[in-house]
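Data card: per-record layout.
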Amino acid sequence: MADSGDRPEPPPDSPEGPADPATHALLASAVDAWADAIVANDAERIAAFMADEWVIVSESGITDRDTFLAYVTSGDLTHSAMRAITPPRIRVHGDTAVVTARITNTAHYGGDRFDADEWTTDIFVRRGGQWRCVLSHITPAAPPEGS
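The structure for this 147-residue chain is written out next.
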């Protein structure tokens, strides 16, 4: 359970064969660009990374795409920082990709500031040559042992 997936060596190949380096780079870049859009609080840019059926699962339950984007558009939800603190673990299985990373972020919701250290998993699907996220799952990261 202590394995974070954060290794200096390349990840093992999937049973389907070696990962395509171009696809890996494209997905890693998309995750970074999506984080930039979130910090810019730009609902239109954020939406470009989401499939219509996208949902986020968190400790508060399931939030759909339209609700999430409405929070951003209204200014009720903003982010001032978002940074990956582990390299993304990317696994591609045909037209589906699983991207997991540890992320720190600072959000503001309803006038309150929230600093988070979370493990995030995003499920992307490739449709018409474009990768779009269909599901994001976040869970708080455990504090380091001894803290």
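Known properties of this structure: The longest strand covers residues 112-127. Residues 6-14 have pLDDT under 50 and may be disordered.

See the next section for split statistics.
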